[in-house]
Design goal:
About 2% of the residues have low confidence. The N and C termini lie far apart (67 Å). This protein has two domains: 134 residues, no CATH class; 235 residues, no CATH class. 21% of the residues lie in helices and 42% in strands. The strands form four sheets. Strands 6-9-11-8-26-25 form a six-stranded parallel barrel. A four-stranded antiparallel beta sheet has the order 1-4-5-27. The longest helix is centred in the first third of the chain and has 47 residues. By secondary structure, it is an alpha/beta fold. Pfam families: DUF7305 (PF23981), Tad (PF13400). This is Cytoskeletal protein CcmA (Bactofilin family). InterPro entries: DUF7305, Tad_N.
Length: 389
């Protein structure tokens, strides 16, 4: 049979079949249009929430000061907004995700929602408006800079940094004067000095950078490179005392006498206008900053309440004494040891999971520094943010 003749005979049936299937085809096309629009609107809201949370997190001042953070979050939301969204900015009391607990004082949550009209779905469901929403949670972080980018930092321009005996450091070390490494000391990182660097004994370092001379003797080794560089300059130590004290007073954690903590869990900013002693057999678990207008003597353990959290503990002494911070005994500390005006004295079997930053550092015991660069000192670096969820 001629194919054209066959199709002509079936023409009426094709018209009927097309008429029957046309509503179904139109319905499927309409459903695809509505679902595509809902997906687009969801993505648009998520981008808006992400932008607002990421921007706002960089302006979090403290757990109780959110004015700048909210303003910045709203600014970036408005840049993407069509003015028909419902927007809320909140702050969590706790955030846990895949076993990690985050510091809520550094977090911001942005929720965005809007009503979206549909045109074809309502023929099936009877509902012509759907509410869609998006949520973003961001955390403020500081990028360590200045002295806080080092595991060991000595800020004195008149006294050398001496690393000797059984001292083992993971991370970089800097001295604003000379740097001397001897004995069995090891530095798994770069040794950097504004003045001269001297390596002796059986010490070992990864690399050496000095503005001055580099002297290597004995069986000491440099596994990577040595170089002279005029880029090694004096690095100042910033003062965060007023900011920490203000934050401590705002949350009722300002003391005129040593609180004599024992096996305590602390959080946030704390200010003590007295000498502080943390004795042996005493574990203090904390996040935040402990600012002491006096000397600090530690022979017990100081651990971060959650060592997976980048907002760890900072121990900060304002004393200019030779014993501004003294650490002895079998002691483990998670966080920053900071004495910008005085000396940090190590006399025991001490492990610091973080860094030691001071005007001068004296080591006569066994010191291990695991330079994880905890960054809980306020504005210790450039602020950044990361989306948590």
């Amino acid at each position: 049979m001629n194919i054209f003749k066959y199709l002509k005979q079936k023409n009426g049936q094709m018209i009927v079949l097309f008429a029957l299937t046309l509503p179904i085809l139109l319905g499927m096309a309409g459903l695809a249009i509505d679902l595509g629009n809902l997906y687009y609107q969801k993505s648009y809201l998520q981008n808006m929430a992400d932008a607002g949370a990421a921007a706002g997190a960089m302006y979090i001042v403290s757990a109780t000061n959110h004015i700048e953070a909210e303003a910045e979050a709203q600014k970036y939301i408005n840049l993407n907004s069509k003015s028909d969204e419902s927007i809320t900015v909140t702050y969590p009391t706790t955030i846990k995700k895949t076993g990690t607990t985050y510091d809520p004082s550094t977090m911001i949550i942005v929720n965005v929602s809007k009503n979206v009209k549909t045109y074809f779905i309502q023929l099936l469901t009877g509902t012509n408006t759907y509410t869609i929403s998006a949520r973003a949670t961001a955390q403020m972080t500081n990028i360590p800079s200045g002295p806080f980018a080092y595991s060991l930092f000595s800020g004195s321009s008149t006294d050398p940094l001496t690393i000797s005996g059984n001292t083992h450091v993971t991370g970089n070390a800097h001295s604003n004067q000379n740097l001397e490494i001897s004995g069995n000391a090891s530095l798994l990182g770069n040794a950097e000095a504004v003045g001269n660097i001297t390596l002796g004994g059986s010490s070992s370092v990864t690399s050496v950078t000095a503005h001055g001379n580099i002297l290597i003797s004995g069986s000491s080794t440099v596994s990577s490179s040595t170089q002279n560089s005029s880029n090694v300059t004096n690095i100042p130590m910033p003062d965060f005392a007023n900011e920490i004290q203000t934050n401590a007073e705002a949350v009722g954690q300002s003391y005129t006498k040593d609180p004599k903590w024992k096996n305590s869990t602390l959080s946030g900013a704390i200010y003590v206008n007295d000498d502080v002693k943390i004795s042996s057999n005493n574990t203090i678990s904390s996040t935040g900053q402990l600012l002491v207008n006096g000397t600090i003597t530690i022979s017990g353990n100081l651990t971060a309440a959650d060592n997976t959290n980048q907002q760890q503990l900072a121990i900060y002494s304002l004393s200019n004494a030779n014993d501004a911070i003294t650490i002895s005994g079998n002691t483990t500390i998670d966080g920053i040891i900071y004495a910008p005006k005085g000396n940090v004295k190590i006399t025991g079997n001490v492990t610091v999971n973080g860094s030691i930053v001071a005007k001068t550092i004296s080591i006569s015991g066994h010191l291990t520094v695991n330079g994880t660069n905890p960054i809980s000192v306020p504005t210790s670096g450039k602020k950044s943010s990361s989306l948590i969820e």
